[in-house]
């Protein structure tokens, strides 16, 4: 798996916004205790965010802060390959982004299956 700065930043900002208890759960499903303890050990001390996480919270677009956080995760995975499973598990809990279309009429978002001609839109004619 390729660990990108975008994934790491998204993971940590989700953690920063929701807190350790809520960041990695969806619909009653929750990340394993091992995965939570792994990320907690990397970015928390005495239940308070460590410097790398605090600085990323303060300036989430700062590329050097993102790279520092990415490096912490990569080093942890390099030291123990089991940590890659925890990382992969945690990214499953990241909010999914969806494309939205606004200020448009007659937008087809599904499949069209017809036996003949298909017209989508206003004022369209078949010649």
Characterise this structure:
The protein has 127 residues and is mainly alpha-helical. The chain has a domain of 87 residues. It contains five helices and four strands; from the N terminus they run αββαββααα. Helix 1 packs across helix 4 and helix 3 packs antiparallel against helix 4.
Shape, principal axes of CA atoms: elongated
Number of strands: 4
> How far from one another are the termini?
52 Å
Oligomeric state as shown: single chain
Q: Assign the structural class, choosing from mainly alpha, mainly beta, alpha/beta, alpha+beta, or little secondary structure.
A: mainly alpha
Main sheet characteristics = 2 strands, antiparallel
Report strand %.
5-15%
Q: Count up the helices.
A: 5
Mean pLDDT: 80
**Stretches with pLDDT under 50, minimum 5 residues:** none
Order of helices and strands: HEEHEEHHH
> What is the share of helical residues?
40-55%
Radius of gyration: 21 Å
Lateral arrangement of strands in the main beta sheet: 1-2
List the helices and strands and how they pair.
Blueprint: H1 5-18, E1 25-26, E2 29-30, H2 33-43, E3 44-45, E4 48-49, H3 51-58, H4 63-79, H5 82-91
Antiparallel strand pairs: 1-2, 3-4
Helix pairs in contact: 1-3, 1-4, 2-5, 3-4, 4-5
Main traits of this protein?
single chain, 127 residues, mainly alpha, two-stranded antiparallel sheet, two-stranded antiparallel ribbon, 5 helices, 4 strands, 47% helix
